[in-house]
Amino acid sequence: MPRVPTTDRYLTGQVLADLHRKMVFVAGPRQVGKTTLALSLPGAEAGYLNWDIDAHRARILKSELPPGALWIFDEIHKYRRWRNYLKGLYDGRPRGQRILVTGSGRLDLYRFGGDSLQGRYHLLRLHPFSAAELGLDRPSLLEDLLRLGGFPEPWLSASETESRRWSREYSTRLVQEEVASLENIRDLGQLQLMMLSLPERVGSTLSINALREDLNVSHKTASAWLEVLERLYAIFRLAPFGSPQLRALRKDRKHYHFDWSVVPSRGARFENLIACHLLKWVHFRQDTEGLDYELRYFRDRDGREVDFVVTNRRAPELLVECKWSDADLGRGLKYLKSRFPDAEAWQISAAGRKDYASPQGIRAAPALKLLSTLV
Fold this sequence. Notes:
By secondary structure, the chain is an alpha/beta fold. The protein is built from 14 helices and 14 strands. The strands form three sheets. It has a seven-stranded mixed β-sheet with strand order 7-9-10-11-12-14-13. A five-stranded parallel β-sheet has the order 2-3-4-1-5. Strands 6-8 form a two-stranded antiparallel ribbon. Helix 3 links the parallel strand 2 and strand 3 (70-74). The chain is globular, with a radius of gyration of 21 Å.
């Protein structure tokens, strides 16, 4: 049975607060709920303009803007001169005028010429639903989130079939509409093949050489396509954490999908879900508090691994190891905790029931115990 939709998102209060100070950019994956959030704000519908709608685009180009104290520009980053346009509006705006910009590309990276908007906006990144945002309090609900993904439409449908259909259509539209309108890529078919092959590689380091061989493209092309998928919030990649003293690997990166439901292996899908939850928390702390948080992973030359390392000013603050069921504490987690005893350390499970603290200070628990403390 479909779930009841909600327009109140975890960023709504921050958006309203920041609009009184500067322009606000809300970026995030396609169909993650940016427009719904924007239109839920007081006075939003009267001031809403979408670059993808012909009549709205004409009004933007003619500077025939709606009356009212709030202007919302949706997908305006598809306009090549969007940065200069917004700079002019912001610098000449009437007193009390608020400006909200939403887009499915990384608005901080799409700088197609013109003067910088530095200092004129706050960037907030909207992520899919998470366990904390949804208030999940039962393992069965976390299982639903694992199966359906965190995007509003498949989650609210409560149907695994509808979730699969949505994911398939989502991938196609991302390439045919977003990539085609924002990037100079001719071979969209090969890019689509790359997107279809990536979910099977989640959980291990991503080899660009293996990708280029499978797709029969150059290393430069494969690398550039991965960067495009990152800019459009299809995937994200994590760099390794470490130093020469730790004998850590320092080059290979791991990748994850914002739509974790596409990952076929249940263990890798659970790891991907945790990656998305942690990245959402990291981005929230970065965007709302200005903290120097990063999400990384650890692997050293002796084969010790920790799935996720959250750093603050490059120092480990949170260590997280993922297991499908109850298991002995990972040796990589025990090693890294011994090297950084002040870091909070968790080993979480998707289906396990044990909940205890080890003498070393490592918490082993069902995943919801940790996820409910995030955002």
